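Let's practice the habit of predicting before peeking. Look at the sequence and jot down your guess about where helices and strands might fall. Then scroll down.
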Amino acid sequence: EPLSYTQVAEGFGLRSTQVKELDELAPALQDALSFGDPCFIEMVTAGEDEVIPPVAPWQRCVQKDQVCNEN
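Done guessing? Here is the structure:
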């Protein structure tokens, strides 16, 4: 089971919430700011293994075993 950062924060006495969708962010921030004490907001995003990193053009050529002209 993955680590629950909200539960860790609650273990330290912080009010915490988890945001999974963009439309949940504004209400979570408003709630945290109106609370008056420190709060923890966990933003769930795609994992590093799910996101394709940008690749420079010369790297694509090398991967395809081609010669690149970078003019």
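How did you do? The chain is about 35% helix and 15% strand.
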